[in-house]
Amino acid sequence: MSKLVTELHIIGENGNMFDTDMEYIIPLYQRAYAWEDKQLTQLIEDINDVAEDSNYYIGSLIVSKQFGRYEVVDGQQRLTSLYLLLNCLGIKTKPTLTFACREKSNYTLRNIEELLLENRSKIDMDRIEPGIQRGIRILSHELTKDHFDRESFMEKLAKIIVYRIEVPENTDLNRYYEIMNTRGEQLEQHDILKATLMSYLSDDSEKGLFAKIWDACSDMTGYVQMHFISKNNAVREAIFGSEWNSMPPNSWQKYKKAISGTTQETTGHKICDLIEKNFKVEDDEGYVDGDVRVRFESVIEFPYFLLHTLKVYVSLYGVTHEIATSKIVDELLDDKKLLDAFNRVVSCGITDTGRIADSKEDFARGFIICLLRTRYLFDKYIIKREYANDSADGEWSLKSLYVSGQQSKKKAYYGNSEFTRSGEWPCTNDWRTKTNIMMQSALRVSYTSPKVMHWITKLLIWLSEADCKNIKNDAITKFDKVAENIAIDAVRENFFQVCSNGVYAMGVNTPHIVFNYLDYLLWNDDRNGKKKKYSDFVFEFRNSVEHWYPQNPSEGTFEQWKDGVDQFGNLCIIQRNVNSKFSNMSPEAKKSTFKDMIVKGSIKLRIMSELTEKNGDKPASLYWKERAYKAHEEEMLGHLKKACNIE
Questions:
Q1: Which of 83, 519, 573, 645 could form a disulfide with 542 if both were Cys (CB 3.0 to 4.6 A apart)?
Q2: Mean pLDDT computed over every residue of the chain
């Protein structure tokens, strides 16, 4: 780790982070302490969420060493909150935190214990700073709740770390703070990771090369090719070919030749760049035909992409933990543990060639190449949201970057990524692109948390394995099947293996992937048929599993269904923001009241609505409960069982 970056444990065997001879001073140009309920309760929750087996990064503290003390440039709200937290827990701290020219703030910090004991007779309340007093009150309330487990909390607090980062000497602090405050920029875990990996390289030119590739990959907007900016597109063409669409090389020497000898603007915001008066980042997201401006939105942010790439690297190089019984990477993709994840691979990882810790320089080179190649594959083969032609909501997109024009007049445009064999008609590719979009979007809306988007990792590993052989031959035509197999495995494991004795009654706990994969199967069957009823169907974030025949009928207006209401045939998935009355209405009332929502909703829901009809003298709701739901369930389960190869 860089000499300017220090890992601080909040509490440890040798005391706490404020047990230091160095004073932290909050300069006058910073605002007063202002954290309230939302931020402080989130701090407590973050600590309570810490796992037992690893450290947990909770933020960075930017400081400048001035006259034998640390002037806090960024992170003072968190720093002050941690100081208050330790005191509220009864942990003694040295008086090493002070506010410049704020006598009330300093007086309050020195009298926290008296405020907690409410010894108002011993303190001058007119000298108490209200913001800090409010913070003490909120923290004290959270720490004295009935369910608060102090022993567990202290164990987790011991795993919390903050990174103290010193700005380089001679930095214009006023300008730095102004820019950080205006742009909301702050050094995050991935910034620290970048500095750490660069420190493994001994050659300054290689560090610069590493930084340029990292900066290009860290901007998740648009396509990575467009983040390599140089005169006459020299760097872009050296890496991605004259058409800007070739796989980046797997050779460090080729990158040194492509980038080191040319003028290249980086897209990262370094301190030395930010303080320049004329700092400017060129932005070029490219164009589609007709020069219509587009914007592509990634389904994940950069810290998560780093975690996916780390898993790709581990898979490609066969990295294992030096302790055979230990995992080299966690299953969960937790951005708060980004540094811990990389530290484990570097410190404990072994490959066929030996320990990674013994060849950190090779790891830095290998990882940055893997990062760029994985980002190229991600852009080309993993869905995005595309906002084009003034579309407010955007649409799912699977496109590649292409180039038109000659030499200096070249510019980018976007067309469907290719999933065809050589010689096949373009319409065949459009058909396969649509299938891939539908399958991936079904996975995307099923797993809304970036922490569990394992489907992205699995697809990236498949695309990357054996020097990306699967994108170089006809195997790419089966890419939708690779994604579909991920859905099939999830449905088998979390639905069919959970439900026993032929009873499929998980109710609202039915995994969303079951509904979305079923909709994919229904859409695909319809597309291959003659009716084309569901050509307008798209996967959206329908995150609420509901009963078609309700659990609790409105005001007892119709009969309650005690047995069978949780059956799969009686369940549907809808948007969470749909009127809450939906849950208690009868099936026929839902059909008439939510007509517009149903016609654009889940395919299973549309079918349920169509089947809700009275039969002879039996009202629609009664007939649904007695017979129709069962026939519907058998038909829907039939689709799933066939696809999942379930007997």
A1: 573
A2: 87
